[in-house]
């Protein structure tokens, strides 16, 4: 099994490719929608196509005689690319459309948690466009009263992290809650979740954390914990982004989380895998520590971006073998370097509101090589002349590695100076950790 197809072309996929080709005998084939220069260099061949067209992906997978496939982003999963590849007898270390519902349907996930008594589930209501408008309004008013207005609204489809609206961050009156529910039901995907808002302890600036795991059926292998920084500007100000950076600690835990709370998060993931029965691939849990314990914000059916960059370089096992184990349902224990990591994302100036695309980026490789760091290309495009241009999304992830998060942070920020261009980045990733 050495011919591997990778679908996707972000920094997360660059990190996945690097982990896949660690073993000597791997032939990597990449299906991308733009040329990621990092992935291009690691691949035997690549193809530029539509990531959301399962037929085109299957055609390419057959052409290159892929032994198995790994899918990076969520949208191809929700379009059923795994189902189509498996129909063509190409196994995948990623979930099929039904299993990836854990990410693309918030209604499915909350119902699964409630029906299986999985801890970490908020109280919630589901509304559909078939419901009577007056009764929706009454139910919303009752729920707001019961929860002292502390609610979150989640459209029931993929929104790239931008569809969730939370009381006091985005919504400040009953009317705004009702209007947003109606807006989603009118323009969205016919169903919406209204749920209790989790409140972080007042002593913590940010109590959200990411737990990723390799999953095969009911067997889950957890990876080091990560915390990411979603807001565009320092001090967690500005609009939400895909994430501006992230960190992990050398002990693979996080400073604000006790062992008992860590175990609770693992137990929630284990119970979820048990309820799903047939999940295969990476499961990503976004959690929040609250005064009522560990709560689940959402699941993703893939690696996080940037969280993949924090964990994969520390994996001591061969990731291509891990994929085979997930496919064959024989996952075994994995080991991770006891090192910390800090990822800083470089984005085009003006990101995310008015990003300046088509600006050239220059990487000083000699300078970069001085540091214990890694560079992962994200949403860039490489011209036929070999120039690297920004697009409207994040451009480069720089990962610093070190014995402590502090050391990894210093390294990451020093390494950032090896990239020149019209760029924006946060200067406070992992500050105070
Ligand atoms: P999601 O797309 O579900 O990850 O939501 C995006 C962001 O909204 C999360 O990272 C949280 O900061 C916030 N969020 C989502 N659900 C809740 C909730 N029930 N309580 C508090 N914050 C939430
Ligand atoms: N870092 C958040 C995500 O990958 O969805």
Short descriptors:
433 residues; alpha+beta; D-amino Acid Aminotransferase, Chain A, domain 1; 3 domains; four-stranded parallel sheet; globular; binds glycine
List the SSEs and their pairings.
Layout: E1 3-7, H1 11-20, E2 27-32, H2 37-42, E3 45-48, H3 54-63, E4 68-71, H4 74-78, H5 81-87, H6 101-104, H7 106-115, E5 124-128, H8 133-146, E6 151-155, E7 165-166, H9 174-187, E8 191-196, E9 208-216, E10 219-222, E11 227-228, E12 231-233, E13 237-240, E14 245-248, H10 259-276, E15 280-290, E16 293-300, H11 307-311, H12 319-328, E17 340-348, E18 360-363, H13 365-368, E19 373-377, E20 380-382, E21 388-390, E22 396-402, H14 405-416, E23 419-420, E24 423-424
Helix pairs in contact: 3-5, 8-9
Bound molecules: adenosine monophosphate and glycine (GLY).
Question: Could you characterize what this model shows?
Answer:
- This protein is of the alpha+beta class and 433 residues long.
- It folds into 3 domains: 2-98, Rossmann fold; 123-196, Dna Ligase, domain 1; 208-424, D-amino Acid Aminotransferase, Chain A, domain 1.
- Helix content is 30%, strand content 27%.
- It is built from 14 helices and 24 strands.
- Strands 11, 14, 17, 19, 22 and 24 form a 6-stranded antiparallel β-sheet that branches.
- The longest helix is centred in the middle third of the chain and has 18 residues, at 259-276.
- The chain is globular, with a radius of gyration of 21 Å.
- It starts with a strand and ends in a 9-residue tail after the last strand.
- The mean pLDDT is 96.
């Amino acid at each position: 099994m050495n011919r591997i197809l990778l679908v996707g072309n972000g920094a997360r996929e660059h990190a996945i490719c690097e982990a896949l080709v660690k073993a000597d005998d791997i032939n990597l084939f990449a299906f991308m929608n733009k040329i990621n220069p990092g992935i291009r260099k690691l691949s035997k061949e690549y193809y530029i196509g539509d990531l959301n067209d399962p037929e085109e992906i299957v055609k390419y997978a057959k052409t290159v005689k892929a032994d198995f496939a790994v899918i990076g982003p969520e949208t191809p999963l929700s379009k059923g690319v795994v189902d189509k590849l498996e129909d063509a007898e190409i196994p995948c270390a990623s979930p099929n459309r039904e299993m990836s519902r854990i990410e693309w349907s918030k209604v499915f996930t909350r119902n699964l948690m409630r029906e299986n008594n999985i801890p970490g589930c908020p109280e919630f209501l589901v509304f559909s466009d078939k419901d009577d408008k007056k009764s929706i309004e009454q139910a919303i008013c009752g729920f707001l009263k019961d929860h002292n207005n502390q609610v979150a609204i989640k459209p029931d489809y993929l929104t790239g992290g931008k569809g969730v609206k939370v009381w006091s961050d985005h919504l400040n009156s009953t009317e705004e809650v009702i209007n947003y529910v109606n807006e989603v039901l009118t323009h969205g995907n016919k169903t919406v979740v209204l749920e209790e808002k989790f409140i972080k302890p007042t002593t913590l600036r940010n109590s959200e954390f990411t737990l990723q795991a390799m999953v095969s059926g009911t067997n889950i292998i957890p990876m080091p914990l990560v915390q990411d920084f979603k807001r565009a500007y320092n001090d967690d100000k500005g609009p939400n982004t895909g994430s501006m950076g992230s960190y992990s600690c050398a002990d693979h835990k996080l400073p604000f989380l006790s062992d008992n709370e860590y175990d609770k998060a693992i137990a929630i993931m284990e119970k979820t895998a048990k309820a799903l029965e047939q999940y295969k691939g990476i499961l990503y849990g976004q959690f929040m520590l609250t005064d009522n314990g560990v709560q689940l914000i959402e699941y993703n059916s893939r690696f996080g971006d940037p969280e993949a960059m924090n964990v994969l370089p520390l994996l001591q096992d061969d990731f291509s073998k891990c994929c085979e184990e997930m496919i064959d349902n024989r996952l075994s224990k994995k080991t991770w370097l006891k090192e910390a990591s800090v990822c800083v994302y470089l984005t085009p100036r003006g990101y995310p509101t008015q990003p300046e695309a088509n600006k050239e980026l220059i990487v000083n490789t000699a300078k970069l090589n001085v540091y214990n760091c890694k560079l992962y290309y994200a949403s860039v495009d490489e011209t036929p002349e070999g120039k690297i241009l920004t697009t409207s999304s994040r451009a480069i992830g720089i990962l610093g590695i070190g014995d402590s998060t502090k050391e990894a942070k210093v390294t990451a920020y020093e390494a950032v100076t090896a990239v020149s261009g019209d760029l924006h980045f946060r200067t406070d990733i992992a500050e105070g950790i």
